[in-house]
Amino acid sequence: MPVTYVEFALSTLVDETALLVEIRGIPRDYLFAYGAGWHIHVEDLCTYLAGGVRRDADDAQWESLEELYRGVAEKLPQ
Description:
Elements: E1 5-13, E2 16-24, H1 31-49, H2 59-75
Helix pairs in contact: 1-2
């Protein structure tokens, strides 16, 4: 399996901070799974930062995100 790189960057936007997550080296066949998984992790982080409590992703959320990211991956150039 190829090496995957994850890079995080923070930048200030007036009175807020933006987080950029860049992931490289993901095999095309796994883009949907990485996309869905990272999406859930970022949502968890947002919930935590807002003072909420993390919840486990349910099957419906996972399936919905997989479908979304499969569609994104299909539109990428070969």
